[in-house]
Write the structure tokens for this entry.
Amino acid sequence: MEKSSLLCVFVVVVSLFGNLCRASEKVGIFELKKGDFSVKITNYGATVLSVIIPDQNGKLDDVVLGFGSIDEYKNDTTYFGGLIGRVANRIGGARFTLNGIQYKLPANDHGNTLHGGDIGFSDVIWKVEDYVKDRHLSLSYDSHDGEQGFPGDLHVSVTYMIIGRNRLAIRMKGKALNKATPVNLASHTYWNLAGHNSTHNILSHTIQIFGSGITPVKDNLVPTGEIRAVKGTAYDFLQPRKVGSRLSQVPGGYDINYVLDGGRDHNGLRHLHKAAVVQEHKSGRKMELWTNKPGVQFYTSNMLNETRGKEGFVYRKYGGFCLETQGFPDSVNHPNFPSQIVNQGETYQHVMLYRFTAHTTRH
């Protein structure tokens, strides 16, 4: 495969991207690579730029949708590859009450708050704490009290790691320094296992989601507060089946939080559990995803509309899928959902682990 020539010519100097800097941090691109498996990340938004993996014949493709320049990420409305926070997904009515105080947030999505507000964590420059090429990249960001309306100072960090063969781990943390605050970080990467520049959309991908419930939503995509079983519905991916197999029953496409099964030990603590498996049959590529979080948002890029991406390729509706492990959307306004509140001195932790393989498959 011909790797993105635009990305390859970036150099890590602030003079090229000085217009993006809100602090003294430089914007750069960092590669993690082991064998023919490679990942590129920028500290602008802690964004995943590319993931290159082989198919069943050894052909390399970039399976992540994205842009060819950092400036395009600055003006992005798709959240391609970004690290989302302080609270990912939607907060209904752009407000919540915590410890008797009502907090008002930016209403950047039809009267609701989406992905942290007008300037979320995917729109800021993260500090590079540690970078060991071919092994890991650690980034941090200090979110101040009142930023986008959220209470308290919050120190957040993310580490991207290549572990073993064709495994990518993402470890996110957030420490509440002086006030209780909601925290729900998520990685918003768009995938197409046939390649980001494939002429095939993701509707023929086979997916299995290890979640027997969903949190249904109102017309504005804010949860009703109900947890509903998926068995026998168009949202039932408990057994592997094609993404598009029941799409006619889901107007517009999938954009819903799944309630994941398992993941708690006898003390009620969450540990890594399998969230989803996706396979693309022509390439033989398979992606398995584990997490320690209770939910995963399955999104079939319903809002992509002639979006020009890397190498000038145009992304269209259903051009990629997202699997965003997370706490449940709008948990701050639904006491029956798992809490996202991190009290002063406590640390939020979120782990994702991807395993990529490629095998000959039958159609």
The radius of gyration is 19 Å.
